[in-house]
Amino acid sequence: MERKSDSIQSKEMVTVTARITVKVRITVRVRVMVMVTVTVTVTVRVIVTVTVTVRVAATVTVMVGVMVMVMVRVRVKIGEEGHMSNLDLWDKVCVTDPRHTKKAKIGQMNITAIDPQYQRKAATEVFGAYGLGWGISTESEKIEFLTLGDTTLATYTAVMYYKLDTSVGAFPICSNLKVAYVTQGGKGYLKVDDDYAKKLQTDALTKGLSFLGFNSDVFEGLYDDNKYVQKITQEFAKGEQAQKAADYFKPLIDEDSIEETHQRIKDGWKRLDQDQQKEVYGLLHDKAPDSKRKYKTLLDEHLSYVGEEI
Description:
This protein is α+β, with helices and mostly antiparallel strands and 310 residues long. It contains nine helices and ten strands. It has three domains: 9-75, no CATH class; 101-221, Enolase-like, domain 1; 226-303, no CATH class. Helix content is 33%, strand content 34%. Helix 6 (226-254) runs antiparallel to helix 7 (259-270) and helix 6 packs across helix 8. The longest helix has 29 residues, at 226-254.
């Protein structure tokens, strides 16, 4: 007897259920130097339907694996009403304009001296007028003298204060110098410094401002690096050019909107490169005297002028 076998095919529906856990790690950096880490665990149920054609006497194993990794980094910047970070003031005042420094020598030490008037101006720009926004507390100044052989030393102590936003800070400052001494190691003449009081106060204020970060690059020794000095010299030069350009545009913007004014503003703007334009634009944040709008808004209108009066 002849036996005949037929090939048999079958189709089976296989439902695969996969359970996927997705972890999202979010790091939020806030200006108040608070690091908030939030870990979110999300469970996702995924149903995968797979159609498999199976021949008789055959075994098919299907494995489906899914791995999902998500990393999210979020940076949050607090607006003007937010709190300052601990280094906001420091970062604002730490760089020194090389034009207001000079090399000096004290004893055997070579130092970089900072123009005291430049420092006072910088402090006034941040805190307000001397005696109101910052300065030396009334009646806190003291000068004590100490005589050692032919040398008389003067030590100055006081309390420096400053106002920042709604807070008032204060801390002690001091300085000392030789008021009188015999030159040439005691073999020369008696030299008396009759300007010691002013020098003591100036030096103490310089040290006090350095505690707040003023001219920190000098005190950190960065001025010993010629490349650093060259770099910031160029940066301050660019800033000065931007300020001159802003001072050039403001009176033009204040003028009546006539064709010649529009053209002069456009021509002046074209002479600036992109970096200079950004610098100038940032300096035009104040409002024009005869307008409730800012200079930069009026500048935009002049630059977009095509024939009609503003």
